[in-house]
Amino acid sequence: MTHPDHDTYSNDFVDNQHSRLMQDFPPAPEHQVLLANWRDPGTARWSFNHLRQLLPTAPISPPPISAGYDRHPTPLPRDHLTDLDDLIFTNHDGQSQTLAGFLDAAQTDCFAVMKDGHLVYDWFGGFGAPDRQHIVFSITKSMAALLAGVLVGTGALIPDKLLTDYLPELGNSAYKGASVRHLLDMQIASGFTEDYHDEDGIFMAYRRAAAWNPVEEGVMNDGLRAFLTRLPPLDVSSRNHGKYHHYCSPHSDVLGWLIERCGDASFADLFSRHILGPCGARYDAYITLDTYGAPRVSGGLCITVHDLLNIGQMVLRGGTSGGVQVVPADWIADLFATFDNSIWLSQNDGAGPRLFTAGNYRSQWYQPYQDKDIIAGIGIHGQWLWIDRTNNLVIIKLASNGTVVDSLTDQSLLNVFAAITATLA
């Protein structure tokens, strides 16, 4: 499963228990992946690597060289590879474990490490492959924030302005009175609850609006953006905008709407032109859409692991790739800057954050520690993008973990990062 020599899909990568999914013509009912079950543990391994076969999507194609980017997409060189399969680390319960053993147990599809600008390790399991796009869930939020930084750099978007200055459609929603900066930092007082197990409340209504779940017969679905215009405020006077951290995926969909309004183009076109192309992407990416064509910017990006690795390297290099300033340097510097984290620490009614208990959150990126030059993009079901500027290290894990939020696996993964950092120092 490790270090494939070419960028072609092979059934050798497929776990036996998933090998019959969507393979017959038509697939047998027990082997069929549907809109109703695509995130279930038994089907996620297939669907997270084949999502455009299930949902409406928009392609994000790297622009041609003639578009002004002198970047010729080429495979990442493999002349610096190091075999880390047998790297020993201590997992969350104090037991020794090998890296390859952990990746397999964590239902990892793709794992890649870039050190000093060189690919030094990659690993593939399940349906993962170098040329196959994988959904990155909330890492999409972090990618959208890079695109927002480009628009800030051109003056098309001003973080201190009110959201309703750009999107007056939100004037009767939770976003009334909130600034773009509040949106970027997830500090908007909304009545939305991010409950991944919700079956009939506002979170399920959100997923149906985004076309991620079937709409019940007789229920009207007027799309994601109509849902956003009705997002209720939080009726707690002590929790006004900018006063507490409230992680809320719809905020990132508003960010996508804002990007399209200020960029005067679709999110897919803007991401292609300003991020994917300048970073030398080799493959198309794509993003899921609602039934009206609005992108799911909170979590719908699907991209290959090596192309995402190059974007991470661009961030590590202060926003540059191939000698081109892709994202403004001051925007990237701000992602790593140290800020007052009292709002971050006061979340969950004072119980603090799930991870990074001394960290922070800035412009849709996690700052794991106040004393380290590290930022991270994190998505449910085991997606991670880890950027360590001090150690010149970018690490990506894309997975199909059947558990939506697996804190124990995440704690082990942080130990993996530390072990890799020490080994490659």
Word description of this protein:
The protein is 28% helix and 15% strand. It has helices spanning 44-47, 99-105, 139-154, 163-166, 180-184, 202-209, 224-229, 249-263, 267-276, 305-316, 329-336, 342-345, 407-424; strands at residues 57-60, 88-90, 96-98, 108-115, 118-124, 134-135, 285-288, 301-303, 320-321, 324-325, 360-362, 365-367, 374-379, 383-388, 393-399. The chain contains 13 helices and 15 strands. A hairpin with a 4-residue loop joins strand 14 and strand 15. It has one domain (13-424): Beta-lactamase. The strands form 5 sheets. It has a 5-stranded antiparallel β-sheet with strand order 5-4-15-14-13, sandwiched between helices. A 4-stranded antiparallel β-sheet has the order 1-7-8-6. It has a two-stranded antiparallel sheet with strand order 2-3. Helix 3 packs parallel to helix 8 and helix 3 crosses helix 9. It is an alpha+beta fold.
